[in-house]
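We emphasize that the prediction below concerns an isolated chain of 310 residues; any contacts that depend on oligomerization or on bound cofactors are therefore not represented. The input was used exactly as deposited, without trimming of termini.
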Amino acid sequence: MVFLPAERFIVFIITTLALLDACLLLLKGVGIDFVGYASLIACGAFLVALGQFYRHVRHNDRIAAAATAAGLFVLFTIAGSIFNYLLLPSYFAQIDGTLTQIDGMLGYSWPAIVEWAARHPLVGLVLYAVYTSSLMQLLGVILVLGFSGRTTRLQHFLLTGVIGALLAIMFWFFLPSIGPSAFQRLPRQVLEAMPLAVSPAYGTELGRVLREGSTHLTPANVLGLIAFPSFHMVMACMSVCFLARIRFVFVPAAILNALMMPAILVHGGHHLVDLVGGGVTFAIAYALARSLLEKATPADAQNSTIRLAD
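Result of the prediction step, given as a token string:
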């Protein structure tokens, strides 16, 4: 197998996480849905193999880059999600109280914004659809960058996502938070007016998992654990930033992810400052990914700035 520099780095990260996952599963005695995860791993491995086929046999670099990137994205998501769960239970104090105080200083209230959305059910439904589009957006960006021949830009995109996720996991491990939905209640009529991706019941379950950990992992029942920094915000920034120079998709992406910000607040059960944290995390990950790419291709260093901007 032959991988591009960013792909090699991500393969290393996936392998490292997989080994850590295996060790932690054994040490903690946590059960796992082997069949459920095996089907997802097979999907990711198939895409990587398809990419290698087009790289070596069919000699189509665009399809090879897109398929490999999609496969690595799937495999990293699986390994990273399992690792995040296996860090529990948390032994560090939650920072939700501090984040709630900051929200109050900024005049933000999660119940208030959810109640507003409930009074406008169509708005609530649109924001729900926007909120649940994040992963599909990332796959869409991979396909657009890959099939348009922006291979270096695609590598930068992948590295940014992986580094951003690792930064979010590390920060959350030491300073955990689960968002206001775990601590604030909503009137029954609000809960009945529209579906909520993260409801108070969901928040309560997050709190339990944070305190007790999990005894059995299955992809059928995965919770979004990290509140601050918001990884949905990281993904929104990634979609807009990496499509900025592709006119026919940039405007729809910009509109969609402008709506993503209120969607994260309403349906993600987030503190307002979680979005700020997500934006900062993206900026750091973007810069680190760019630096790694430039160092990984020293022979082309003089042209790297141009290529990364393509």
